[in-house]
Protein: SigF-like NTF2-like domain-containing protein
Organism: Marchantia polymorpha subsp. ruderalis
Amino acid sequence: MENPALEVGHVVRALVKKPTFKQQADAIEKYFMPDATFYHVYVNVYKGHGALIALYQYAMFVANYQDVIIRSVIYDAEDNCVGVRMTVICKPWLLLWRSLKLELFTHLELSDSQDPRSGKTIKRIKSQKDYFIRDPLIQLIPIVGPIYDSDSVKFVLGTLLTVAFRVAQNAYLMMVPKTVQSCAFSFWKKFLLSPPMEQCHSFPTKMPR
């Protein structure tokens, strides 16, 4: 890549926007360093093109990638890295009746390399780290998955929990005497807000002789 901020979207699409196995392998060999590493919460991978190609093609077979939406790209030229927030749409073979939207943030550490054809200095991926915004394993669970994956449902549940908390808070303020509230607040402020070592220092101790 000569301009990572503009070209990283093309790299991501070449990897997960329903490519063929050959297109995916060609993209890895072109855009990744020969000793590139990959960090993922669910798998451990060896270094190098061969390991990355095997991982990507296995994931593509299992997840059945359909599309990818690039949400945002952040390029830090000083630290030589790129951050990409994306939504990968897939249709796993076990859940062909519905699509999954995998929300994730990918951190790409870059390294300077020389293009053998043009002699120009280009950027290639040295390390990839994926961070899921939503856990894909929970998304796979029937009934629970669609609720967990739905922003509307989570918004409604969050609103209901907020209202319930406010009602409980107001009931506490109305029903519990002020003196009890004051004692509870004093205990919370003295012991629960202070660091553990300071809590220990508040009690008298005897040194062994």
